């Protein structure tokens, strides 16, 4: 007989709607798994069992009333969805992975949290993140490192490593995550999950810590395409004060519906060389990409090889903007000495970036967006770009961190994840698809990127790949 965590989020939601499954029972199941496994896994920074039980009780009462009255419930009503600890939940500690904020308790919800509350989801806790989400691993001074359940000696990636570890190990059915330079797609690849970085403005970043650069967004991590698309429906929607707003779906449509649609015949560009000078791509990552290209061809799509020129200018622009964002994080004066070496390095560098250089870097992002929109993906051009998600398989915990030389660490981070930040700079949607595992049993993801505002095509294409080569039934030994 299947355990509750074997069910997809949509199966759990259907059971709650029908009365066959209790949100209280489901929540207790996940809380018990967290208690048993998380000290090893490092998925959570803060657990919220009391709040989860209260929300589950309320969700059960609402589900009972809805059945009695013939009302519809939100698509993930009663389903647990943890929140990454970069986002604020009123009354719950929010550390952003930093000892400097170890005791910070916000008084207001971020908009994404408000949407999760309105959607009737259950908060199991706040998931682990590196300090301010800056590196692509999840190690900090507050909690054990987040590990991929496929090999506990290896990192879950970052910066949404805690969220990915939780879903991949069956500590949550789906999870909220964020992505400013690959932070959804990187851990999705390391943990064998489907993850969506939405288009800029698809999900609100407000009301307090708006990312003025437009690099960062929230998004979903899940085991299946349909679960991720449904969580995207719950999170999506512009809010008053948002600086960006992605084009809405036609009235009445949902992203979840696109997980059941045929994508049609698409023109797909296949990119295997990293657009960062001097970066080597591991054979496993190249093989996963070329094998996926062959699979897509077999599914009837037109796939062509593509190379993008390696561009030091875009790398410099991203480094400047990333450093300014690090410097902009609110840290109390007495907390500066508690920061990680990489954080201090980036904050110092960001403080030296002039307003003019910051504006030039943002302009470089906009010109890159325009060149892709006009030259690579216009109507009649490519519909999707396929590439590796990462340049190497999951690395051992601590392999990228270098407290003695944070400048070298930042370079190593860039070499490990040279493909992902491109789409944060342009604002385009991109997903990690877990179609491959290597000879060592480690997940190797591939990335699909689409036109701005067109998550629907990526979801439909990913669902087609999922049907052709199912992955959700493949689970790690600790499952």
Descriptive overview:
This protein is α/β, with parallel strands linked by helices and 479 residues long. Helices cover 39% and strands 12% of the residues. It has 15 helices and eleven strands. It has an eight-stranded mixed beta sheet, with helices on both faces.
Summarize the SSE layout with pairings.
Elements: H1 9-18, H2 23-41, E1 44-47, H3 49-69, E2 83-84, H4 111-118, E3 125-127, H5 161-168, E4 174-179, H6 185-191, E5 194-197, E6 217-222, H7 225-235, H8 255-258, E7 267-271, H9 283-298, E8 302-306, H10 312-328, H11 341-351, H12 355-376, E9 384-388, H13 406-416, H14 421-426, E10 430-437, E11 443-450, H15 455-468
Parallel strand pairs: 2-3, 7-8, 7-9
Antiparallel strand pairs: 1-3, 4-6, 5-6, 5-10, 9-11, 10-11
Helix pairs in contact: 2-3, 5-6, 10-11, 10-12, 11-13
Shape: globular
Rg over alpha carbons = 21 Å
Number of strands: 11
N-C termini distance: 14 Å
As a percent range, the share of strand residues is: 5-15%
Helical residue percent?
A: 25-40%
Major sheet: 8 strands, mixed
Q: What's the average pLDDT?
A: 97
- DSSP summary: helix tally: 15
Determine the structural class based on helices, strands and strand pairing: alpha/beta
Strand order of the largest sheet: 4-6-5-10-11-9-7-8
- The topology string of helices and strands comes to HHEHEHEHEHEEHHEHEHHHEHHEEH
> Which residues form runs of ≥5 with pLDDT under 50?
none
